[in-house]
């Protein structure tokens, strides 16, 4: 969303498009999403069909216009991701993110579906992750792995439909996401490379 000409669809017309990027005058389903040279665009809705954990991403390229015909399959934007690979040097990282309930704002609009609006009083988030990469056989076979478990608790403050309260009871909604990635790269010769990724 930081690239010029890119906005986020708020899902007003279709909740499946919520937070999907729109480029220029094109709608969210007109984009093309590529991971390591392969299209991961959802064939049914045209949105991103892959959830790649952030510690598996080496580089992101956003093309909003004027790109070559070789990319194709897009009248909107092109979002290309290059994933990390192992090397002859063992390396890795750890990260953590936490936001407590007391640190979040109250009465925030969390979801809008036509005339139904859901508000949240507070939310808490916890996200930790780790990655490691290195060589199994020096100059021939490398590996990379990443794991990113996330937890989010939203305390719902109520719902409003066209100005009238629908449900003002305080409820709690828990969301768990366990993102992972693994990649093996084999170079049988100096001119050939085979990579296998799972995420």
Level of helix content?
Answer: under 10%
DSSP helical segment count: 0
Q: Mean pLDDT across all residues, rounded?
A: 83
The SSE string, one letter per element, is: EEEEEEEEEEEEE
The tally of strands reads 13
Radius of gyration: 21 Å
Distance between the termini: 23 Å
The largest sheet, given as strand count, sense and whether it forms a barrel, is:
7 strands, antiparallel
Structural class: mainly beta
Which residues sit in consecutive blocks of at least 5 with pLDDT less than 50?
Answer: none
- Basic shape: flat
User: Per DSSP, what share of the residues sits in E-state strands of 2 or more residues?
Assistant: over 45%
Subunit arrangement of the protein: single chain
Tell me the layout of helices and strands.
Layout: E1 6-8, E2 21-23, E3 32-35, E4 38-39, E5 57-63, E6 78-83, E7 91-99, E8 108-113, E9 116-137, E10 141-161, E11 164-167, E12 171-189, E13 192-198
Parallel strand pairs: 3-6
Antiparallel strand pairs: 1-2, 3-4, 5-6, 7-9, 8-9, 9-10, 10-11, 10-12, 12-13
